[in-house]
Amino acid sequence: MPYPQSTNSLNQSKLSNLQTLVLVYILLLCINPLSQIKIMGIVTTECEQVCAVAPARLYKAMAFDFNNVMPKAIPNFVKSAEIIGDGGPGSIKKLVLVNGYVNQKVDVVDEENYVYHYTVDEGSVLSDLLEKVCYEYKLVASLDGGGCIIKSTVKYYTKDDTQLSEEFLKDNKEKSAAFTKAVVDYLLANPNYN
C-alpha cells in the first residue's frame, strides 16, 4: 500500500530515507539478534551514616579537597590523588591505589545543598561484573547542629544481566562506609583543617 500524500513537511525523500533506516535496522537485527545485545542491569543500595563533622567541613573535604585528604585519610589504600579539571561537573578525580587505580567522573556539585555525585567507570575496582558505579551523596545537618547525616545512594550498573550477590553488596556498602569514616576520622583528628 503506498503512503498517502502528506500535506505537512514530510516529503517523499524523507519517507524514502525513513524506509531505508527501518530496513537497515531490521537487517542489523538479523545479523546481531536481540539475544546478543547487551542489557545492563541496575542495582541500587542506600545508606545513612551519622558523623560528628559539620556538613560544610565534610563537604569541602569530599568534593573540593579530595586530592589532599584521601591519601592522608586512607594511606594504606590510596597512594595519591589528582583532579583533572576545575573539580566541577565533568572533572576527573584520579586515585592511584596501592593495588591499582580508579577514575571518578564528577557529575553533580551542589555546594549550597551539600550534594555531590560522581561515577566510577574506569579502574581496577570495577570487577568483571560491573560497567560502572554511580555514587550520590547528600549531607544533612544533624539536629544538634554540630555534625551531619551522610545519605548515600550507590547504583551498580552490571554488565549484561549479571546478578550481584547480597554478600557483594554488603561488602561494598561496608567498604564505602569505612572510606567515609576514615575521612571523618581524619577531620576529627585534624581540627585545624578547614
UniProtKB/TrEMBL annotation:
Cited InterPro entries: Bet_v_I/MLP, Bet_v_I_allergen, Plant_def-hormone_signal, START-like_dom_sf
GO cellular component: cytoplasm; nucleus
GO MF annotation: an example: signaling receptor activity
TM segment ranges: 15-34
Keywords (A to Z) from UniProt: Membrane, Pathogenesis-related protein, Plant defense, Transmembrane, Transmembrane helix
Residues annotated as domain Bet v I/Major latex protein: 46-189
Pfam families, A to Z: Bet_v_1
BP-aspect Gene Ontology terms: abscisic acid-activated signaling pathway; defense response
Annotated coiled-coil segments of the chain: none
Keyword Lyase: no
UniProt entry tagged with the keyword Cell division: no
Similarity annotation: Belongs to the BetVI family.
PANTHER family: NODULIN-13, OS08G0374000 PROTEIN-RELATED
Protein name from the UniProt record: Bet v I/Major latex protein domain-containing protein
UniProt lineage: Eukaryota, Viridiplantae, Streptophyta, Embryophyta, Tracheophyta
